[in-house]
Amino acid sequence: MAAVRIASFIASGPRAGLAAGGVAAVLPALWLAFFPVVGAARTVGVPGDVPTIGLALALASPGDTVLVAPGTYYVNLEWPDKDGLKLLSQEGPAQTVLDGSGDVQVIGVYTGVDTTTVISGFTIRNGHAEGQ
User: Fold this and answer.
1) How are strands ordered across the β-sheet holding 43-46?
2) pLDDT at 107 over 90
3) How far apart are the first and last CA of the chain?
4) For residue 26, what are the CA distances in angstroms to 44, 49, 88?
5) Burial of 55 from C-beta contacts in 10 A (0-12 / 13-18 / 19+)
6) Side-chain half-sphere exposure of 94, counting CA atoms within 13 A
7) Are 68 and 107 in contact (CB under 8 A)?
8) pTM (2 decimals)?
9) 108/126 Cα distance (integer angstroms)
């Protein structure tokens, strides 16, 4: 979330017309916020750190954990091609629902899974298999 605040500050802060040097000084911090050092697994909270599950999965690196707060999330997710991702709920399936709204698959997993990939702690409902 800090990266979003930094970007917002640049665009609308008291020095909105920052010279290129000022923006260049902030870009490395933004890069590290979303793309950490390889090998450093991290936990990304939804919606605390990133607003959506799909965005959190897209920004995640192999081995990261996406930790989802309780609630109902209307999703049509495509699992990214990254080994070892973990998609976990904070409070378990009674409190955290992934809902396909009856029109779409909830999670499509086509690539990017290995024996360390985990999806756990969700009620998955109102989805369908691809092509149905």
Assistant:
1) 43-46, 65-68, 86-89, 118-120
2) yes
3) 38
4) 21, 19, 31
5) middle
6) 1
7) no
8) 0.69
9) 14
Tokens at residue 127, please?
A: 């989805």
The residue type found at 90 is: Q
Q: CB neighbours of 27 closer than 8 A, spacing ≥ 6? A: none
Number of neighbours of residue 4 by Cβ within 10 angstroms:
13
| 56-103 pLDDT tens trace | 999 999 999 999 999 999 999 999 999 999 999 999 999 999 999 998
Spatial neighbors of 90 by CB under 8 A, at least 6 apart, are: 67, 68, 69, 70, 96, 121
Locate 83 and state its tokens.
């080994």
Provide the residue type at 50 as one letter: V
The residues with which 73 forms a beta bridge, in sequence order, are: 98
Give the helix/strand (H/E) hosting 101.
Answer: none
Contact 57, 84 (CB under 8 A): no
Which two structure tokens, joined as six digits, stand for 132?
Answer: 């149905």
Determine the Cα–Cα distance for residues 132 and 114; give it in Å rounded to an integer.
26
